[in-house]
Design goal:
Blueprint (H helix, E strand, L loop, with lengths): L2 H9 L6 H13 L4 H14 L3 H12 L15 E5 L7 H11 L4 E5 L9 H6 L10 H11 L1 E5 L6 H12 L6 H13 L5 E8 L8 H17 L3 E8 L7 E2 L1 H12 L5 H17 L6 H13 L2 H12 L17 E6 L4 E6 L1 H11 L15 E4 L6 E2 L4 E7 L2 H13 L1 E4 L9 E5 L5
Parallel strand pairs: 1-4, 2-3, 4-5
Antiparallel strand pairs: 5-13, 6-9, 7-11, 8-10, 8-12, 9-11
Length: 437
C-alpha cells in the first residue's frame, strides 16, 4: 500500500493494520517517505484518533526502531515510575533510592524540563559532579551495584519517536493522545522492564488539563504496556497546586533529601508513598497498597532510603556531601513575596508557579536555554492556609532583581483568596490497571 493510501485511510477514519503501519514507518526511516507525508498522517491521527490496537502497533514499531535494553542478567524485579510532568514534581528523586532500598531494581531514564515543568535530569545535575550521561554498560553496572540508576535517554532509544516528536512539535499535533501514549511507552518499554507505574498528572500545572483527557491517556498507556507484556498501572494525581514546597532544581533536590530523612511535605509524601506502594505491588512484593506504604515508610525512618541515595550519588560521581545540605548551589539573591490581601488560600496556580520559576532562571523557554540550578521558588504557604496582608507567601531565588519583580507580579495573580476555608484537596484521583480484564 502506498503512503498516500495509508494517509487517506486514516483521514477517512478507517483502522490501519500492523502491516500498514510497519510499511509506512519503515519506509520513512529509510528515507523513502518525506516529512510532509508523515506530517499529514500525524494530522489525520490528531483529527480521527487511533484504535487501541493501532496505538499498540505504533508503539511496537517505535520501540523496535532502536535498542531495547536486556537487564535479565541483573536479579530482581525491574520496575520504573514515569510522570507525565508537573510543577515541583521531585518524586523520582525520592522513589528511585527508596524502591532500591526495598529490593526493586529501578532503571530510570528521564528527560529535561521544558516550559513550566521541571526535568529530573536538570535536578540531578544540580548535584555537583553527578553524571546523567552514562554509557549503557555503565548504567547496567550502577544498576547491579546500587539497585537503581538515573540517566538521560540515549540516541539509540526509540529514534523514530524523536523524529515524530520534532514533526508533532511544528504541526500542532503534540496533544494527540494516541501519539502521546505511544511516545511515552516506546521509551519506557525500551528500559527492559517487568513493570511500570505511570503518574498521569491532571490540572493547571499538567499537560492534561481535564479528567477526561487524563483518563484517556491513562487507559491508552496501560493497554499498551500490558498488551506488550509489561505489567502497567496508571494513577491519576492532582497537579492544580505545586507538589511540595520547592520548585527549582537544587531546591527540589534539597526537598527530596528532606523527604528521604522523613521530613518531606505532606502532599509530596502522600503521592510518593502511594506510587511506591504500587511499584511494590507490580513487582509482586506486596499484595496490599497500605502494607506497601508502611514498608516504605519504615525504610525512610530507619535511614535505608537515604543511605541508598548516597550510594547512587557516589556511583554516578556526584558529591555525597549534598546529603548534609552542603555543596548544593545557592542563589545570590532572594526576594520575599508577601501577600497583598487577607483570607484563605483557595488556589495556587501550578502552571503560573512553574512559569515564574522558569522566568527566575530555573527552567527553559527553549530546548537550548541555559538554566540556573540555584534559581526557583520556595513556597511558605499552601492551599487552605490563612494569610493576612504582608504575610510571607514564598521566597524567590534568582541572580536578577528585575526578574524577581516581574515574577512576583505574575505569581500573585496566580493566587486566589477566599473568606472561608476550601475543601481539602484530593491528591489521588483514579487508578487504572489492565484494561483488558
Amino acid at each position: 500500500m502506498r503512503a498516500y493510501d495509508i494517509i487517506k485511510k486514516k483521514r477517512d477514519g478507517l483502522s490501519l493494520s500492523q502491516e500498514d503501519l510497519k510499511t509506512f514507518f519503515n519506509a520513512y526511516l529509510k528515507g523513502d517517505i518525506p516529512d510532509y507525508q508523515v506530517s499529514a498522517f500525524l494530522m489525520a491521527v490528531f483529527l480521527k484518533g487511533m484504535t487501541a490496537e493501532e496505538t499498540v502497533y505504533l508503539t511496537d514499531i517505535m520501540l523496535h526502531s532502536g535498542d531495547v535494553l536486556d537487564l535479565s542478567q541483573i536479579p530482581g524485579p525491574k520496575v520504573d515510575k514515569h510522570s507525565t510532568g508537573g510543577v515541583g514534581d521531585k518524586v523520582s528523586l525520592i522513589l528511585a533510592p527508596l524502591m532500591a532500598s526495598a529490593g526493586v531494581i529501578v532503571p530510570m531514564m528521564s528527560g529535561r524540563g521544558l516550559g513550566h515543568t521541571g526535568g529530573t535530569l536538570d535536578k540531578l545535575e544540580s548535584i555537583p559532579g553527578f553524571r546523567v550521561n552514562l554509557r549503557i554498560d555503565e548504567f547496567k553496572d550502577v544498576l547491579s551495584k546500587v539497585g537503581c540508576a538515573m540517566i538521560g535517554q540515549t540516541d539509540e532509544i526509540a529514534p523514530l519517536d524523536r523524529r515524530l516528536y520534532s514533526l508533532r512539535d511544528v504541526t500542532a499535533t503534540v496533544e494527540a493522545i494516541p501519539l502521546i501514549a505511544s511516545s511515552i511507552m516506546s521509551k519506557k518499554l525500551a528500559e527492559g522492564l517487568d513493570g511500570l507505574v505511570l503518574d498521569v498528572k491532571v490540572g493547571s500545572g499538567a499537560f492534561m488539563k481535564t479528567m477526561d483527557n487524563a483518563r484517556m491517556l491513562a487507559r491508552a498507556m496501560v493497554n499498551i504496556g500490558n498488551s506488550m507484556g509489561v505489567k502497567t498501572v496508571a494513577i491519576i494525581t492532582d497537579m492544580n497546586e505545586p507538589l511540595g514546597m520547592a520548585v527549582g532544581n537544587s531546591l527540589e533536590v534539597r526537598e527530596a533529601i528532606d523527604a528521604l530523612k522523613g521530613k518531606g511535605p505532606e502532599d509530596l509524601m502522600e503521592v510518593t508513598l502511594y506510587l511506591g506502594a504500587w511499584m511494590l505491588k507490580v513487582a509482586g512484593m506486596e499484595a496490599e497498597i497500605e502494607t506497601g506504604k508502611g514498608r516504605l515508610t519504615e525504610l525512610i525512618n530507619n535511614g535505608s532510603a537515604l543511605s541508598k541515595f548516597r550510594e547512587l550519588i557516589i556511583a554516578q560521581k556526584g558529591n555525597p556531601q549534598v546529603i548534609d545540605a552542603r555543596y548544593l548551589p545557592y542563589s545570590c539573591l532572594r526576594g520575599d513575596i508577601l501577600s497583598r490581601g487577607e483570607g484563605y488560600i483557595h488556589s495556587i496556580n501550578a502552571a503560573v508557579v512553574g512559569l515564574c520559576s522558569m522566568l527566575l532562571g530555573a527552567g527553559r523557554e527553549r530546548i537550548d536555554s541555559i538554566i540556573d540550578p540555584a534559581a526557583g521558588i520556595l513556597l511558605k504557604k499552601k492551599v487552605g492556609d490563612f494569610v493576612k496582608k504582608g504575610d510571607l507567601l514564598a521566597y524567590f531565588y534568582a541572580v536578577d532583581e528585575d526578574k524577581i519583580k516581574e515574577a512576583e507580579d505574575m505569581f500573585l495573580e496566580g493566587i486566589s483568596l477566599g473568606e472561608t476555608a476550601p475543601d481539602k484537596r484530593k491528591l489521588i484521583l483514579d487508578v487504572f490497571e489492565d484494561t483488558r480484564d
